[in-house]
Amino acid sequence: MTAAQIRTCDARAGWVPGACLLRPLPLLAAAVVASNDLWLKPQNPGGWLEGKLSDLGICLLLPVVLVSLWEWAHYALRGARSPASAAVKLAACGITAAYFTMLQLWPAFGELHMRLLARVAPFINHTLYRDPTDLLALVMVPLAYLHLRRP
């Protein structure tokens, strides 16, 4: 075994599924979304800043959550301890971009989304405000991909 293989094995031995979710950037995004939804939005419903903060946080956080879920499912079903491939990370970013775009542009999808949120988190008052400028939050998706590519 070469020295490079030993270093790779040592790095993987300490790897945990979903570890990408426990880094500062996703934790900050989760804190922004949670504090915004639980504190800022009730203080100023329909406010411009409050809507943008959630959009930015979700566009960064959702791909990381999807990759983490994939890693945990892969580990649970196959017992394989390995980080998600670049294709999985790219797919998570694509799913996030598509979901967010449909949420903003397709009213029926927005209604379905709101019903789902009401069941998952009934303790939060959910309101969907459509604004074409919300699509600017999609700039966070490539940032999420760069974050996911970090070793």
How many helices?
6
Q: Distance between the terminal alpha carbons, to the nearest Å? A: 22 Å
Overall geometric form: globular
**Tally of domains:** 1
Number of strands: 0
Name the assembly state: single chain
Helix content: over 70%
How many whole angstroms does the radius of gyration measure? Answer: 18 Å
| Major sheet | none
Provide the residue-averaged pLDDT: 84
Q: What descriptive keywords fit this protein?
A:
single chain; 6 helices; disordered N terminus
Describe this structure in words.
- With 151 residues, the chain is mostly helical.
- The protein has one domain.
- It has six helices and no strands.
- It has helices at 3-13, 24-43, 48-78, 86-105, 107-120, 140-149.
- The two termini are 22 Å apart.
- The relative contact order is 0.15.
- The model is unreliable at 1-11 (pLDDT under 50).
Itemize the secondary structure elements and their pairings.
Elements: H1 3-13, H2 24-43, H3 48-78, H4 86-105, H5 107-120, H6 140-149
Helix pairs in contact: 2-3, 3-4, 3-6, 4-5, 4-6
In short:
The protein is globular, with a radius of gyration of 18 Å. Helix content is 70%, strand content 0%.
